[in-house]
């Protein structure tokens, strides 16, 4: 049992990434507990090791490396963490397969079959198509006739093309295609991607719903709306993976569809959801939120929840260490005029009650 006065020791895997930093910022905002936070990563991105976000940084082999397992277990043996938060889906999947008693005792990761479906967009859509919670879609292989797919399946309407490799994210291989020539050009530019998902374009609002589960029981949730992405002009899809502007919302239809998707997958796999799931949704022409993907981790915007007093990252740690009684059970209702602002070289800003910029900036126009 951890003493109230002692530091809680947490390892954050994939800690060098933007989401790892968001987790660290969230835990530092705790009003009740002190944390010793350790980042583990392959550290291709060296930025975080020169900041003070983490108390320690540990370089490990990639999860695909034969030395990963022994290195990871040695780190756990030496550090003796109270909790581990897995922020890379490959590591989540790896340890789900291992069913290691030590690791299982200090984390709450998603079970194997449920995890495998979530990180495979093809498997996810194939199952959820039965629920009408995903857009109209088809899987396209390079040996197929693209013109036939676009004409017969989508009546030559604009479509969304994206790669369906396991764990692909941040708009990888994604673009809106308006005609056959654009589709063929996109295939040429993405020659290493063999399989694409082609689906209806969803023009509505863009949401992420974070769900925290313990053995099938939903402990807490948080929803934010993506309003603008970083440097959208750099990606043909306009999606660069991280938002520059967003807001926290309490959209019950988003929550209902997100929970319904997880519960449906749980029923199909006969496994209880566990840990954190981030369900991405986008509105159709009537702005009905449809699922576009499910990730087995937090997102970079998670620290904005903590800044608003709804610390989902800490709730996950408290669940792992057996302090569920410390998790706020009330529904989180964000203020209507809140705003999330993020920039490349600055800490995320959360504004609880947004004031029009013209009211706080003095303007000279001569």
Q: What top-tier CATH class of the largest domain fits best?
A: Alpha Beta
Give the N-terminus to C-terminus distance in angstroms: 66 Å
CATH architecture assignment name of the largest domain: 2-Layer Sandwich
Strand residue percentage: 25-35%
Describe this protein with a few key phrases.
366 residues, alpha+beta, D-amino Acid Aminotransferase, Chain A, domain 1, Dna Ligase, domain 1, 2 domains, seven-stranded antiparallel β-sheet
Description:
This protein is of the alpha+beta class and about 375 residues long. The protein has 2 domains: about 10-120 and about 205-350, ATP-grasp fold, B domain (D-amino Acid Aminotransferase, Chain A, domain 1), CATH 3.30.470; about 135-200, 2-Layer Sandwich (Dna Ligase, domain 1), CATH 3.30.1490. The protein is about 30% helix and about 25% strand. It is built from 11 helices and 15 strands. It has helices spanning about 20-30, 70-80, 90-100, 100-105, 110-120, 120-130, 145-155, 180-190, 250-270, 300-305, 310-320; strands at about 10-15, 35-40, 55-60, 85, 135-140, 160-165, 175, 195-200, 205-215, 215-230, 245-250, 275-285, 290-295, 340-345, 345-350. The strands form 3 sheets. It has a 7-stranded antiparallel beta sheet with strand order 13-12-9-10-11-14-15. The protein has a 4-stranded parallel beta sheet with strand order 3-2-1-4. It has a 4-stranded antiparallel beta sheet with strand order 5-8-6-7, sandwiched between helices. Helix 3 packs antiparallel against helix 5 and helix 5 crosses helix 6. The longest helix has 18 residues, at about 250-270. The protein is globular. The termini are far apart.
